[in-house]
């Protein structure tokens, strides 16, 4: 792990933009198979920790290939990124990354409402 602490990925130089212990951690999931549902995502990702929310963009399920996951802790989110980024699912290589604070600000109200 980096010198920043246990909530940082090893390759990160500055993780303070998303490393906030005690706050939910946001993960962006990309390159999903078309037609993947929120339930499909929950089924796989709940095994990696406390999964609080799964958000898929509104629209035609046959055109959506990404999701935002909200985990209860930074360590759970990091575990997902380290385990599944660049892994193969449905013959597609998944993109799994931590989102920084700037990206997650617009989602703060949404997570309180659901």
Question: How would you characterize the overall build of this protein?
Answer:
With 114 residues, this protein is of the alpha+beta class. It has a domain at 25-99: RRM (RNA recognition motif) domain (Alpha-Beta Plaits, 2-Layer Sandwich). Helix content is 25%, strand content 22%. The chain is built from 4 helices and 6 strands; from the N terminus they run βαββαβββαα. The longest helix has 11 residues, at 74-84. 23% of the residues are buried. Mean pLDDT is 83; it is low at 1-5.
Key descriptive features of the protein:
single chain, 114 residues, alpha+beta, Alpha-Beta Plaits, four-stranded antiparallel β-sheet, two-stranded antiparallel sheet, 6 strands, 22% strand, globular, RNA binding
Q: Distance between termini? A: 33 Å
Percentage of residues in helical conformation: 25-40%
* Sheet with most strands: 4 strands, antiparallel
- Total number of helices: 4
CATH class of the domain at 25-99: Alpha Beta
Strand order of the largest sheet: 2-3-1-6
Which stretches are poorly predicted, pLDDT < 50 over at least 5 residues? Answer: 1-5
The tally of beta strands, per DSSP, is 6
The CATH architecture of the domain at 25-99 can be given as 2-Layer Sandwich
Estimated structural class: alpha+beta
| Helix/strand order, N-terminal first | EHEEHEEEHH
Question: What's the shape?
Answer: globular
